[in-house]
Amino acid sequence: MNSSNWICVNVQSLKFDMKFILINVYGPNSIIGKKVVWDEISMVLLEYKDSLIILGGDFNTIVSLDEKVGGSQHLTLSSIDFKLWIDKHCLLEIPSNNDVYTWNNKRMENAYISKKAR
Prior knowledge:
The chain is an alpha+beta fold. The chain has 2 helices and 6 strands, in the order ββαββαββ.
């Protein structure tokens, strides 16, 4: 199962006798595109609700101002919607070991740096 912004695979480890669903996401930049991806993934989460699921990737959205440096000091409506979506599906974030930022806007003035969200 997949779309242009995510892929879902069924993984089976013979060594550990373990099965899980792996979903990897690269979120679009547009707000409408993000909501479409979240709705599509919601359907997958419901379809596999009794399975172990690992969901990761770059959602192109943050849920906390701690995830960025510079720029606006307010969360966007998209960020708030994303946080509500995470909560709705009872998703847990695995904390990062470091504070490495993975993206910047390459501007000298009005520059800001942001981490990938997930």
